[in-house]
């Protein structure tokens, strides 16, 4: 069965055929490291992590390049506002993103290049565009001429008046939609020397250069969030194809995470940051929430929906853990059920695939209640194969290692809580009710959330079957 993916460029669901056999090359627009990661940015990465996992399940070798934009106007503005070096902003937030991807169980990319490590190649590409007369210099700035590229606007299907309305400002531009390849140096900003003067690269040229260097002049899939379609991806296509590259053969875009109908934006103190959300749910539960809707659909974030998704995943997890105790040597199946595969091959239709997941959970819970180990083993092995594709198998990595670590920490916390409770009882026996109450309040606050999560996973199968 072929894998079919929605290609933004052609506005059609197309059969996916790699350029070279089973070798698949993917470029994902990574973060601009100006602020800590928020749920919108992470959803996109989880969605395309599922894509990479499904391709690997299908027997493909995946080369995945996910860039880091560590040189951009927003980074420089924040550094100026906080009176700190620009590289400190970039490095601090890069580490936050790296930790976030790891926490959510995303497979590491094959390569994760930083923009500032490829300035020489950016200068070379700009020189190439100047020679081909697709670019021009204005007082140290270099602009791409959209009039020189007749296909400009095909990806976004934008009309000329819409392009003009969203055009970036610039001195001496020949056309309102011309975009900066290079920006001349400003006082206090980092700069590099070039034949047309000191300065720094624009945003769009960075991805064209890194994609070419690590994936070649033509590669299979370019992925990113839907807000990047214009101008970023439109401009990438223009400058890369104008330089003679075939560039991406398929364009995949993930939907936006919204709140009150508005896109969640980058912010240093975002209420939708990963650190804030993980006070409510565990990383594996957040991954389930981010993966459960179709990757191309927008997701209206709500705390209630997040908690409901977490509770639903704990039902799946609880069954897997109970089944593994009954059958400790059972392993995931090597093949997922055909209906699950059909859903995944249909443009990564995870919502439909999850109906097959839940059917296996319900079947397995009935088998547990009835003591039918043969049916239980079959249901659990099928389920774990499907969860593995989604990066959600609680007995797979990285979740199994974390579970073992968390179990040790939980046992330690419970032992310390019992010790504090004993101290409180001793204080009350001595007549020191104030100390006893204070100790009990502190231990309740410290242990909040430890027992409920554990208890959910341990609920009797009779309450979950059906």
Automatic annotation (TrEMBL):
Entry's EC annotation: 6.1.1.16
Annotated keywords: Aminoacyl-tRNA synthetase, ATP-binding, Cytoplasm, Ligase, Metal-binding, Nucleotide-binding, Protein biosynthesis, Zinc
Q: How is the cofactor bound?
A: Binds 1 zinc ion per subunit.
Q: Which residues bind Zn(2+)?
A: 29, 207, 232, 236
Which Pfam families does this one have? DALR_2 (PF09190), tRNA-synt_1e (PF01406)
Q: Which InterPro entries match?
A: Cys-tRNA-ligase, Cys-tRNA-synt_Ia_DALR, Cys-tRNA/MSH_ligase, Rossmann-like_a/b/a_fold, tRNA-synt_1_cat_dom, tRNAsynth_Ia_anticodon-bd
Gene3D superfamilies membership: Anticodon-binding domain of a subclass of class I aminoacyl-tRNA synthetases, HUPs
Where is it chiefly localized? cytoplasm
* One MF annotation (Gene Ontology) recorded for this entry: zinc ion binding
Q: Which GO CC annotations does the UniProt entry carry?
A: cytosol
Give the UniProt subcellular location, in the record's own words.
Cytoplasm
Could you confirm whether the keyword Mitochondrion appears in this record? Answer: no
Query: Which residues make up the binding site for ATP?
Result: 266
| Catalyzed chemical reaction(s) | tRNA(Cys) + L-cysteine + ATP = L-cysteinyl-tRNA(Cys) + AMP + diphosphate
Q: Which residues form the Cysteinyl-tRNA synthetase class Ia DALR domain?
A: 339-400
Q: Which GO terms describe its biological process?
A: cysteinyl-tRNA aminoacylation
Name the needed cofactors.
Zn(2+)
Q: Which family does it belong to?
A: Belongs to the class-I aminoacyl-tRNA synthetase family.
Subunit note: Monomer.
The entry's protein name is: Cysteine--tRNA ligase
Organism from which the protein derives: Thermopolyspora flexuosa
């Amino acid at each position: 069965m072929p894998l079919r993916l929605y290609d933004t460029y052609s506005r059609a669901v197309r059969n996916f055929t790699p350029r070279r056999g089973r070798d698949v090359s993917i470029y994902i627009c990574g973060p601009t490291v100006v602020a800590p990661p928020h749920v919108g940015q992470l959803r996109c990465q989880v969605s395309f992590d599922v894509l990479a996992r499904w391709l690997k399940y299908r027997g493909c070798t995946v080369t995945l390049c996910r860039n880091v934009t560590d040189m951009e106007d927003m980074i420089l503005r924040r550094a100026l506002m906080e009176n700190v070096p620009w590289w400190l902003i970039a490095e601090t937030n890069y580490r936050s993103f790296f930790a976030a991807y790891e926490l959510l169980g995303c497979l590491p990319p094959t390569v994760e290049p930083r923009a500032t490590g490829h300035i020489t190649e950016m200068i070379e590409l700009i020189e190439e565009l100047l020679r081909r007369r697709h670019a021009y210099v204005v007082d140290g700035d270099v602009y791409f001429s959209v009039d020189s590229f007749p296909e400009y606007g095909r990806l976004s299907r934008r009309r000329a008046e819409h392009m003009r309305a969203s055009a970036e400002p610039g001195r001496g531009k020949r056309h309102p939609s011309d975009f900066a390849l290079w920006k001349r140096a400003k006082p206090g900003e980092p700069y590099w020397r070039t034949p047309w003067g000191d300065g720094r690269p624009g945003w769009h040229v960075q991805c064209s250069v890194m994609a070419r260097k690590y994936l070649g002049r033509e590669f299979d899939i370019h992925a990113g969030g839907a807000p990047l379609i214009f101008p970023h991806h439109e401009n990438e296509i223009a400058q890369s194809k104008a330089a003679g590259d075939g560039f991406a053969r398929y364009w995949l875009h993930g939907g936006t995470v919204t709140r009150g109908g508005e896109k969640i934006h980058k912010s240093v103190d975002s209420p939708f940051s990963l650190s804030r959300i993980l006070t409510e749910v565990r990383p594996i539960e957040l991954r389930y929430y981010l993966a459960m809707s179709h990757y191309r659909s927008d997701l209206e974030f709500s705390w209630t929906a997040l908690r409901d998704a977490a509770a639903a995943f704990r039902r799946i997890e609880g069954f897997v853990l109970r089944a593994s105790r009954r059958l400790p040597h059972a392993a995931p199946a090597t093949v997922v059920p055909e209906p699950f595969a059909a859903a995944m091959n249909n443009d990564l239709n995870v919502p439909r695939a999850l109906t097959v997941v839940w059917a296996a959970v319900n079947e397995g819970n009935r088998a547990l209640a009835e003591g039918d180990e043969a049916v239980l083993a079959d249901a659990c092995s099928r389920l774990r194969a499907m969860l593995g594709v989604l990066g959600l198998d609680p007995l797979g990595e990285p979740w199994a290692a974390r579970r073992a670590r968390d179990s040790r920490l939980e046992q330690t916390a419970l032992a310390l809580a019992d010790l504090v409770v004993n101290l409180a009882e001793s204080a009350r026996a001595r007549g020191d009710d104030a100390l006893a109450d204070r100790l009990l309040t502190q231990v309740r606050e410290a242990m909040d959330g430890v027992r409920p999560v554990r208890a959910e996973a341990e609920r009797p199968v009779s309450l979950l079957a059906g």
